[in-house]
Design a protein that fits this description.
The protein has 79 residues and is an all-alpha fold. 86% of the residues lie in helices and 0% in strands.
């Protein structure tokens, strides 16, 4: 079994990567222009929703690993 320091490091690296990916996906979503043309607006809004959905998935994973990081820190202070 890996020691707590290794798990702590892995949790922090995964947290940082997931947060970075979420930020990039939200940036891609924000850069999509919404036209004034009613015929193409729905398609663009669907693309924005697609990227926002994936960004929220990666944000949730980052939050879980952030919670794991806090939990591991608490365990380290108890020992």
């Amino acid at each position: 079994m890996a020691d707590l320091n290794t798990l702590h490091t892995v949790a922090r690296v995964v947290l940082a990567l997931m947060a970075l990916i979420a930020a990039i996906l939200w940036f891609v979503s924000a850069r999509i222009e919404v036209p004034d043309n009613i015929d193409t607006i729905v398609r663009r809004l669907q693309r924005i929703g697609f990227w926002n959905g994936w960004a929220s998935v990666f944000s949730c994973i980052a939050a879980l690993f952030g919670a794991l990081d806090v939990f591991l820190t608490m365990i380290e202070t108890i020992k």
